[in-house]
């Protein structure tokens, strides 16, 4: 039995996939995104140790609220970093007929990733940036992993919700949305595209952790502008 490391749990999550969901934030992330809200989830091996059955017990408490669309979402951190555990946990949840989504960042891929993607009912895929250099500037990772994930998603014909954080002065332009529309064309089964406006609510968390917040001069994303950009999305 593989053990996992858990950062935290959100019950009644309403923004990480369809319906009401129990969100398991797995510990550990190889990326260092400029705007990360959860820098405390980065450290590998921190958090609490769990087994798949612990997560099943927690998730079963939410069954009366999941309805037809809800279920469990694995987020992070980067869930694929614990691929072997993720596969075991999803299989155990699916035995209880609980729908499982994975919220992944495209910044990590290993020998377990294909099967983890295969087991998931829905993939929430964060694009970070369409341009490889900008992708690396934002995440400190190489975009190759994102393409490996897209290849698997297409091969396995998985349903996908695309997520894209829009950050003033980095990707808040109509040209960027055009490039995103082009980028998305290579992904087969896209059900939804969500543009998420950058905000800086994590600054105090960074201060408490004694860490440097690298976007402190960037203002939160303007709502009207985000709406306008949203109207340009095509998929
Ligand atoms: S991938 Fe997610 S958890 Fe990891 S650094 Fe980026 S925003 Fe944070």
Automatic annotation (TrEMBL):
<dbReference type="InterPro" id="IPR012838">
    <property type="entry name" value="PFL1_activating"/>
</dbReference>
<dbReference type="Pfam" id="PF04055">
    <property type="entry name" value="Radical_SAM"/>
</dbReference>
<comment type="function">
    <text>Activation of pyruvate formate-lyase under anaerobic conditions by generation of an organic free radical, using S-adenosylmethionine and reduced flavodoxin as cosubstrates to produce 5'-deoxy-adenosine.</text>
</comment>
<keyword id="KW-0479">Metal-binding</keyword>
<keyword id="KW-0963">Cytoplasm</keyword>
<dbReference type="GO" id="GO:0046872">
    <property type="term" value="F:metal ion binding"/>
</dbReference>
<keyword id="KW-0949">S-adenosyl-L-methionine</keyword>
<feature type="domain" description="Radical SAM core">
    <location>
        <begin position="15"/>
        <end position="235"/>
    </location>
</feature>
<dbReference type="GO" id="GO:0016829">
    <property type="term" value="F:lyase activity"/>
</dbReference>
<comment type="similarity">
    <text>Belongs to the organic radical-activating enzymes family.</text>
</comment>
<keyword id="KW-0411">Iron-sulfur</keyword>
<dbReference type="GO" id="GO:0005737">
    <property type="term" value="C:cytoplasm"/>
</dbReference>
<dbReference type="GO" id="GO:0051539">
    <property type="term" value="F:4 iron, 4 sulfur cluster binding"/>
</dbReference>
<dbReference type="InterPro" id="IPR058240">
    <property type="entry name" value="rSAM_sf"/>
</dbReference>
<dbReference type="InterPro" id="IPR013785">
    <property type="entry name" value="Aldolase_TIM"/>
</dbReference>
<dbReference type="InterPro" id="IPR001989">
    <property type="entry name" value="Radical_activat_CS"/>
</dbReference>
<keyword id="KW-0560">Oxidoreductase</keyword>
<dbReference type="GO" id="GO:0043365">
    <property type="term" value="F:[formate-C-acetyltransferase]-activating enzyme activity"/>
</dbReference>
<keyword id="KW-0004">4Fe-4S</keyword>
<dbReference type="InterPro" id="IPR007197">
    <property type="entry name" value="rSAM"/>
</dbReference>
<protein>
    <recommendedName>
        <fullName>Pyruvate formate-lyase-activating enzyme</fullName>
        <ecNumber>1.97.1.4</ecNumber>
    </recommendedName>
</protein>
<dbReference type="InterPro" id="IPR034457">
    <property type="entry name" value="Organic_radical-activating"/>
</dbReference>
<keyword id="KW-0408">Iron</keyword>
<keyword id="KW-0670">Pyruvate</keyword>
């Amino acid at each position: 039995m593989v053990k996992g490391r858990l950062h935290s749990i959100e019950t009644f999550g309403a923004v990480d996939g369809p319906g009401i969901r129990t969100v398991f934030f797995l510990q550990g992330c190889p990326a260092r995104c400029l705007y990360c809200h959860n820098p405390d989830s980065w450290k590998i091996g921190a958090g609490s140790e769990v087994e798949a059955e612990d997560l099943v017990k927690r998730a079963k408490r939410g069954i009366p609220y999941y309805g037809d669309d809800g279920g469990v979402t694995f987020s992070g951190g980067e869930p694929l970093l614990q691929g072997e555990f993720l596969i075991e946990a999803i299989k155990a949840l699916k035995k209880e007929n609980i729908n499982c989504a994975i919220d992944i960042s495209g910044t990590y891929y290993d020998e377990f990733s294909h099967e983890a993607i295969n087991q998931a009912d829905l993939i929430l895929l964060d694009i970070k940036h369409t341009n490889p250099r900008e992708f690396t500037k934002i995440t400190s990772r190489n975009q190759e992993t994102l393409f490996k994930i897209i290849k698997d998603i297409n091969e396995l014909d998985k349903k996908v919700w695309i997520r894209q954080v829009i950050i003033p002065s980095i990707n808040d332009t109509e040209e960027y949305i055009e490039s995103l529309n082009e980028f998305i064309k290579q992904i087969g089964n896209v059900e939804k595209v969500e543009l998420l406006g950058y905000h800086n609510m994590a600054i105090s968390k960074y201060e408490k952790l004694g860490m440097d917040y690298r976007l402190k001069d960037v203002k939160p994303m303007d709502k009207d502008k985000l709406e306008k950009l949203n109207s340009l999305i095509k998929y």
